Amino acid sequence: MNPKKTNQIAKNIIYGSVGLLILLLLFLIGYILVTGLPGMSWHFLTSVSQSFAAGGGIRDQIFNSVYILILTTLISFPIALGVGIYLAEYAKDSWFTNLLRTIIELLSSLPSIVVGLFGYLLFVIKFQIGFSIISGAITLTFFNLPLLTRSIEDAFRAVPLEQRQAGVALGISKWKTIMGIVFPCALPKILTGVILSAGRIFGEAAALIFTAGQSDSVVNYANWNPFSSTSPLNVFRPAETLAVHIWKVNTESILPDAHQVSSGSAAVLIIVILGFNLGARWLGNVVYRKLTATDKER
Amino acid sequence: MMEITEKYIKKINQKIALKTKDLAVFYGEKKAFAEGTIEFPQHQITALIGPSGCGKSTFLRSLNRMNDGIARVEGQIMYHGLDINNDDINIYELRKRIGMVFQHPNPFYKSIRENITYALKYHGIRKHSVLDQKVEQSLKAVALWDEVKDSLDKNGKQLSGGQQQRLCIARAIAMEPDILLLDEPTSGLDPISTRKVEDTLQELKQKYTIIIVTHNMQQASRSSDYTAFFNLGQIVEFDKTSRIFTAPRIQMTEDYVSGNFG
After folding, report:
1. Where, by residue number, does the polypeptide cross the bilayer (chain A) (predicted)?
2. Per-residue pLDDT of chain B (262 residues; tens, 9 = 90+)
3. How far is B154 from chain A (nearest CA, A)?
4. Do the interacting molecules here have an ipTM over 0.85?
5. Alpha helices in chain B (DSSP H)
6. Topology of domain A42-292, per CATH?
7. Any idea where the domains of chain A sit in the sequence?
8. Which end of chain B has the smaller Cβ count within 10 Å, N or C?
9. Given CB atoms, is A289 within the 8 Å cutoff of chain B?
10. Chain B residues whose beta carbon lies within 8 Å of the beta carbon of residue A170
11. What's the rounded Cα separation, in Å, for the pair B177 and B154?
12. Tens digit of each residue's pLDDT (9 = 90 or more) over A74-114
């Protein structure tokens, strides 16, 4: 076969796979939005869910999902940042760092249902915390840490070595060089890692069914004292998230409008993730530009 | 296999900025450099030349302790009567006194202004008027001020390669060091940018002692006062540049500078 022909075939295959992927994505997102959006109403978004009657909403589920996402990110980001920096900047090639990397890879391949059962046994039962937001958030941290650590490590590694040499040669300490010079360069990639992991957390159901629970306590949104049992901020209350709600409604619900509720929830889930994505990117760009004095992202 | 059978290291009879005695550098068990005894004259440009892998960059990086944690350095480096190859030395303070410019221009991903002020702020200078003055002074010293004075808040990476390298030199001299170490600073630059950097160095030697590693023979011969020829991990000959390039005392040096090497 002549080079021109092979080239053409390769190009067609590549374009074909891209087209196939776009079609699949459009079909999936389109299906979710088309089935979910018609039933969408202000009432659906702002009222509590029903167990038996039609007309329930998903107000608490939306709040719970966002709250667990924020808590999980707050817990896992500092840990992942520390380990990522250690692996990228300080770790020498030794049996210890190899072991650490292996453990991280192993953790990242654990099925979320296994992580959920582990969280159930340890936090819910052993520590007697019960089904709660905090059990869910800590369990999701286990689930989230490996990939987040990996993406932060990669983000730091992608910054050229010369940047570190420049800082150190000016008498700046290694730590300050890492935080003041390397970190701003790594920020866009770190942010991508955070966004990807946020999507995983927001859409996670299996790990939460056994830890944050499938039921909702009655919450009063006027009560912002995190230690009060009716406060939405109370981390010791059980909390059903959007993804868990979708699972529950589809498996064991006797709601007359179960299909409508689950389609609507799925649409909201996708829209919130999209909004979070765009918002985080915008924020990251603003910070990056401010730190590096560039006009646009590299 | 070549062997170094004879050496000639000139004794300097003028003010000395830095000298090394029996400096040796090891990567693990491997000896990368040995028997480094040399004196660097103050406010002069000394070029370090020699084939790739001869140990000249390794030697240079030892002088401001950039080899810490990478290689083991033995022997003495005397600076103001103090042996700086010593664990008790404050390396952060030392690197303020002995600055370094690298092979590839490496401005920070920050504005031109911040490239210069970042380390100054770290070392405790806070006053805006002082910082602004430092920015202007050091950019003028490398003849970059007129080219960038209207875009000080732009990212340093948006400059051309030659401008970036001069920015890196400006960043180093803003610290007001005694000694400036340059590791092949023009190897990635075009001839015009190279010339500008060389002109800059000629200006800077009024105030600073400059030690420059270079692969470029013309650069060594036209812009340095002294030249050290390195080979096989040792200093083979050190003398005035005019002498090295016209009448070297060692055969190996003559072979190298005349291009009959190997």
Report:
1. 12-34, 66-87, 99-123, 129-148
2. 467 778 888 888 889 999 999 999 999 888 888 888 999 999 999 999 999 888 899 999 999 999 988 889 999 999 988 999 988 999 999 999 999 999 999 999 999 999 999 999 999 999 999 999 999 999 998 889 999 999 899 888 889 888 999 999 999 999 999 999 999 999 888 888 889 889 989 989 999 999 999 988 889 999 999 999 999 899 999 999 999 999 899 989 998 988 887 5
3. 6
4. yes
5. 56-63, 91-97, 112-122, 128-141, 145-148, 161-173, 191-204, 217-223, 241-246, 251-257
6. MetI-like fold (1.10.3720)
7. 1-39, 42-292
8. N
9. no
10. 95-96, 99, 118-119, 122, 171-172, 175
11. 26
12. 999 999 999 999 999 998 888 998 898 898 888 888 898 99
Nearest Cα of chain B lies from the Cα of A209 at a distance, in angstroms, of 45
Interchain CB contact of A293 with B (< 8 Å): yes
CB contact under 8 A, B175 and A166: no
At the top level of CATH, which class does the domain B8-13+42-54+90-257 belong to?
Answer: alpha beta
Chain B neighbors of A173, CB-CB under 8 A = 92
Predicted structure pTM score: 0.85
3-state secondary structure string across A124-174: HHHCCCCCCHHHHHHHHHHHHHHHHHHHHHHHHHCCCHHHHHHHHHCCCCH
3-state secondary structure of A268: helix
Is B99 in contact with A185 (Cβ distance < 8 A)?
A: no
Percent of chain B that is helix, strand, coil (3-state, to 5): 35, 25, 35
